[in-house]
Structures
1.
Amino acid sequence: MSAKVLAIANQKGGVGKTTTALTLAAALGRRGMKVLVLDLDPHCCASVHVRLYPEEAHASVLDIFTSKDAISSDFWAQIIQRPDGLNFDMVPAKTQLSDLEADLKERKGKGSILRNAVASVRDRYDFILFDCPPHLGILLVNALVASDLLIIPIQTDFLAVHGLKLLVDTLKVLNKVLPKPLEFKALATMYDRRANACERVLRLLHNKMGPQVFSTVIGLDTKFREASGQGTVIYTVDQSSRGAKAYESLAEEIIALW
Ligand SMILES: Nc1ncnc2c1ncn2[C@@H]1O[C@H](COP(=O)(O)OP(=O)(O)O)[C@@H](O)[C@H]1O
Ligand SMILES: [Mg+2]
C-alpha cells in the first residue's frame, strides 16, 4: 500500500475545501479505503468540525514542521488521532501554524518538510488528504510539493470562475519549481440546480477546463451545515441525502484515477 496524496486547495475561502476534505475522507472510508486527513489551516476549521479542539490537542501538524528529527513512523503514531464516530484518521491543526512563515525563514528545504514526513506514513493508508489554508504561503507550498493531485473546489458562481485564472496561474509558477508538475482537477461545489446562473457557470467551467473538471457536481445541501453543527459528517446525518451521494460519486471517480 502506498497512499495517493491529495491536496484540497483554493485561494478563495468558503468554497467547500474543508467540507470536501472531511466528506471525501468519509466517503472513501465507506468504500473500504484507509484515509488520513491533515488539517493544514491555522483557522483549524476541519479540526474543530470533528471536535479535535486545537487548544486541547496534545499533538498537531505543527509538530511535523517544528521537529528537529526526521519524522518516523513512530512519530506519526503519536500524532495521529481518530475523531469520535468517524471512519478516518486525522492530525489536527493549531493556530500557531500561522507563525510558521517567520519561524522557518532560515530553514533549508523548507518546502519539502511535509513531503519528507509523509514518506514514512504512506504505506499505512490508501489516501492522505490535506485541507489547505486559503492563502499562498509555506503551508500551501508544502502541501502542493507533497501531493499527487490538487483538487480545486470551485463554487459555481461567476466571481469564483473569475478567481480560477489566478489560481491556475499560481500553479503554473509553482510547477516550474516543483520536482514534478502537479496535476489538478476542479470540483464544482455548492451548485444550485434552480439557478440559471449556476448552470451557465458549470458549462463555462467544462468548456474552459474539459477533462480537468470532475464529472461529479456537488449541489447545495443544508445537511452539510447540520453535520458540522453536530461535529460529524453528512453520512451520520443522512446517508441518502444528495450531498452524501455526490461525495460518494466523487470518491468513485477518484479511486478510478489510479
Ligand atoms: N455543498 C454545500 N451545500 C451547502 N453548504 C455547504 C456546501 N459545502 C460547504 N457548505 C457550507 O459552506 C461553508 C463553507 O464551507 P467550507 O467547506 O468550510 O469552505 P472552505 O474550507 O473553502 O472555507 C460551511 O458552512 C459549509 O457547511
Ligand atoms: Mg476550510
2.
Amino acid sequence: MINAKVIGATGYGGLGILEGLLRHPAARVTSLVARQDDTRRIDEFFPHLRGHCDLRVQVAGQEVDDGTPDVVFFATPNGVGMAEARAYLEAGVKVIDYSGDFRFKDPAVYEQWYGAAHTAPDLLAEAVYGLPEFYRAQIAGARLVANPGCFVVAAVLALAPAVKAGLIEPSGIIVDGKSGISGAGKSPKPTFHFPHRNENVEAYRIVEHQHTPEIETYVGDFGGQPVTATFVAHIVPTSRGILDTCYGRLRQDVSAAEAREVYLAAYADEPFVRVSRDGTCHGTGVVLGSNFVDLAVNVNPRTRQLVVTAAVDNLVKGQAGSALQNMNVLFGLPEDQGLERFGLYP
Ligand SMILES: NC(=O)c1ccc[n+]([C@@H]2O[C@H](COP(=O)([O-])OP(=O)(O)OC[C@H]3O[C@@H](n4cnc5c(N)ncnc54)[C@H](OP(=O)(O)O)[C@@H]3O)[C@@H](O)[C@H]2O)c1
C-alpha cells in the first residue's frame, strides 16, 4: 500500500486527489492538512465523503506524527511546496506539487512571471515536469514532480505534436484559453460573486499570464525547438472545464486529414488523450469528471492556420487527475488506476 499525505486537503485540488486516492486499490490516505485553524473531519468539510473518509484535518505545522508517508501531495498555493518539500525529500518521501514552484529550471523565470523570489532554487534541477504523455520515463525515476498548470496541460498536448512534426511555425503561436470559475480555487473574491460572473466572459492577465512561459517551455521542449506563444486566459461562467483553442501558422500545405494523422499517431498509445477523427470539438462537457484530454484538429487552408482545440476538466487532467496519474507512474502502477472516473464536485 502507498501511504499518501495531502497538504491543502480542504481545497479543490486536495479534494480531487483525496477522491482519487479513496478509489485507488493500492493507496491509503494517512493524513490531511490545511492551513486554517479548523480541525473538523474531512467529511464535515465535504459531506459527500460521509461513509468514505472521516480523517480529521490537521493544521499545517501542528501535525501529530502519523508516520512517514510514501508520497505527499502539495495541493497548495505557490510558495508552500518550495518551503516544505525539502524535508519530505530528505526523509525519502516522493513529492508531487501542484503549484508553479517547480515547473521551471531557471528560478529567474519563476521570479519574473510569479512575482516572488524562489526560495529553493537548488531543487529545480531534479524536479520533473509531470506530464506523463511526454516525460513518463523521467517521472518514473523522480523524487519531485511538478504537476502542470491547468491551461498548460491542454495547450502543450494540443501544440507539441505539430511543432515536432514541423507542421507549424515555432513563432506566432496563439493559445486562447477559457476556464470555468473553479480554476481560481475555493476562496471567494468580490469578482467571483455570482452576479458578476454569471452571463459574463472576461479576459484577464492579458499577455501576462504565468502559464505563458510554461506553454513555451514545454511545447518547445517536446517539439524540439524554441517557440513563442501569445496566451490569453478567459473566465467563462461555468463551474469547471477548460477549452484551449490553439492556432499555429502552417509551414506547408497540409490537409486536415493529414494533420489529424500526425496527432492520432502521436497519441495512439495514450490512455487519456482522445483525438477526434473528424475534427469535431465536443466541448468541455464530455470530459467533465474524467482525466481525458479531447483534441480536435482542423486546418484553415485560406489563412494557412492549424487550429487545435483541447478540452480538459481543470480539476482532473488539469490538476488532481494528473497528480494521481503521476503517482501511478512514480510507483510503477498501471497509469489509469484510480482514474476510471472522478466525482463531479463542485
Ligand atoms: N483550481 C484549478 O483549476 C487548478 C488547476 C491546476 C493547478 N492548480 C494549482 O493547484 C494548487 C491548489 O489550487 P486549488 O484551486 O485547489 O486551491 P484552493 O481551492 O484555494 O485550496 C488551497 C488549499 O491549500 C491550503 N493551504 C493554503 N496555504 C497552506 C499552507 N501554508 N499550508 C497548508 N495548506 C495550505 C488551503 O487551506 P485553508 O483553506 O485552510 O487556507 C486549501 O486547503 C494551486 O497551486 C493552484 O495554482 C489549480
